């Protein structure tokens, strides 16, 4: 088994749109039933405006990704990668699919186990 850190997500707030989710990293607990593994080996750049960039950066850092931020021309460039496999431990199948969708939308490779 991969030697990875496990995150338990305490809350999903908002939709699955870029940066609109609030993530809380905690130690895994018995209530976590679904696992989503993820990685992004190469750097990816996303353009964000306003507080969307801040939300995305916070989410990516909570997911233990490397993040670099730059601002120019009225928007924020968010560069990120997560070269080693990580895991999210989630309470429900629905949350797992929401996170898997969000991760894929942002360029991550995912695996979903029950």
TrEMBL record:
Domain of life: Bacteria
N-terminal signal peptide: 1-25
Keywords for this protein: Signal
The protein, known as: Uncharacterized protein
Organism of derivation: Rhodopirellula bahusiensis
